[in-house]
Design brief:
- Keywords: Hydrolase.
- The chain has 435 residues and is α/β, with parallel strands linked by helices.
- 40% of the residues lie in helices and 14% in strands.
- The protein has helices at residues 41-53, 74-86, 90-98, 147-156, 192-205, 226-237, 259-266, 271-286, 289-296, 298-305, 309-323, 330-343, 351-358, 391-395, 413-416, 418-434, and strands spanning 8-9, 33-34, 37-38, 102-107, 116-123, 131-136, 164-170, 219-223, 241-246, 373-381, 398-405.
- The strands form 2 sheets. A 9-stranded mixed β-sheet has the order 2-4-5-7-6-8-9-10-11. The protein has a two-stranded antiparallel sheet with strand order 1-3.
């Protein structure tokens, strides 16, 4: 198999009944195309063959350590391969994705005249006062992270009562939005601002513009990981973005605060906040090598990890295991890696890391530096996040109107604690719309 066939859109020829939550708002200026994911069977068969023939490295001292201090253990990969090869059913995952309304649209970006195709999953409301809410994933994430939260919303509301229009884009270069190459070259990075422009244009095309206050007059964004930087950029750039909620606020020492002031302030932090700062320090010291590789050797890494499903699993699963509070279900990890594999997207998910590590500012990571959110800003603090900074740090980066600290949860908040994140979001949107 020399290249990845693109996932096919399969129409529901036998059943023309519209899915619940699938009616596009009447104010849309561009009508998105309904999309149903279908991976060709030959591609699945080729994957199974590659997986079966993929060898596992011999046992070494490092990969025999079950505490994961050297990365994903060999025995974990042995078991994951066994399940992936013999028990895992991609069609069930595909069916679950297709149980939600999915669409594709083609949008302009800020840096190129060539339009960018974008996939998104949505729950459109029939409630005339519904608030548009965009949920943005990061790396190595996808729309799959948010499906548990969407399931909770479908259980709680009907299309008539849902108080939000939920939009979950596959970010440009990722999974079902990876069919086109973002415009990059040696002198220009594909930046967070570029992604923000595409997502912003998607929301405008769906009729969620206006720039005024109140329901139906703009949109709200939520993000984690790279999605947190895209969300922050949208909030700081576009008047139509009314408010922003994050669950990651990666930053260096706060601007305008001396070392002496910061030392005095440290004494006021809770034990959990102090532990969080140490976690960020540890991540900076020993957890960012993957990002350096993404930024400086994307060709080598993209070619290597796109040649073997087992190699891709090793690279990505290590992050799900290391960055979560408790191990996610193996099925969730296999779903995510399978979607990356079948869409052939890994090589184009690394674009933003060039911007991260090209910055001379060592505190710059995922584009969060110097973008103050001067509008309602909310934050959910999870102890096993990569950079769980203190509340006082978060307050310096935006007009904080909502802050909630949680006793458990990690980097993949929407996947790990969907009911908690949903409760935070619902309360935040309520507060933001009153401001």
């Amino acid at each position: 198999m020399s290249s990845y066939p693109q996932p096919q859109s399969q129409t529901q020829a036998q059943d023309q009944t519209p899915k619940p939550y699938s009616r596009v708002p009447a104010g849309a200026t561009v009508q998105p195309e309904p999309f149903e994911l279908h991976i060709p069977q030959q591609q699945i068969d080729d994957f199974k063959t590659l997986l079966r023939l993929s060898p596992i490295a011999k046992e070494t001292y490092e990969n025999a350590q079950t505490d994961r201090r050297y990365g994903v253990p060999r025995q974990w990969i042995v078991e994951a391969k066994r399940v992936w090869e013999g028990e895992y059913d991609w069609r069930k995952t595909e069916s679950h994705i297709n149980s939600f309304p999915n669409f594709t649209s083609t949008l302009p970006s800020s840096s190129s005249s060539s339009p960018q195709p974008l996939h998104f999953t949505a729950l459109f409301s029939l409630n005339p006062s519904a608030t548009p809410l965009a949920l943005l994933h990061g790396w190595p994430g996808s729309i799959l992270e948010f499906l548990p939260l969407l399931t909770l919303l479908c259980q709680k509301y009907t299309p008539e009562t849902l108080p939000y229009h939920i939009i979950v884009p596959s970010l440009p270069g990722y999974t079902l939005s990876s069919s086109a190459q973002p415009p990059v070259d040696a002198d220009r990075s594909w930046t967070y601002a570029d992604i923000a422009a595409v997502v912003h244009n998607l929301l405008l095309s769906l009729g969620f513009g206006g720039g005024g206050k109140g329901k139906g007059k703009g949109y709200i964004v939520q993000g984690g990981d790279i999605g947190s930087s895209v969300a922050r950029c949208m909030a700081a750039t576009y008047a139509e973005c009314l408010a922003c909620h994050l669950n990651l606020n990666f930053m260096g020492k706060p601007d305008g605060v001396s070392d002496a002031e910061l030392a005095a302030e440290y004494a006021t932090y809770s034990a959990a906040e102090k532990t969080g700062l140490q976690r960020m320090k540890t991540f900076r010291a020993s957890g960012t090598a993957y990002g350096q590789m993404h930024a400086t050797r994307p060709s080598t890494l993209g070619l290597a990890l796109s040649s073997s499903p087992l190699a891709l699993l090793s690279w990505i699963s290590e992050k799900f295991l290391a960055w979560s509070d408790a191990d996610p279900p193996l099925s969730a990890i296999l779903d995510s890696v399978s979607l990356y594999w079948f869409t052939g997207c890994f090589a184009s998910t690394m674009y933003t890391y060039k911007e991260d590590f090209a910055s001379p500012d060592p505190a710059f990571f995922h584009g969060q530096r110097s973008m103050y959110i001067d509008k309602p800003f909310g934050f959910s603090w999870f102890p096993m996040e990569l950079a769980p900074v203190p509340r006082k740090w978060v307050e310096r980066t935006g007009r904080l109107v909502f802050y909630q600290e949680h006793e458990s949860g990690g980097h993949f908040a929407a996947l790990e604690r969907p009911e908690v994140l949903l409760a935070d979001l619902e309360r935040f949107v309520e507060i933001a719309l009153e401001k």
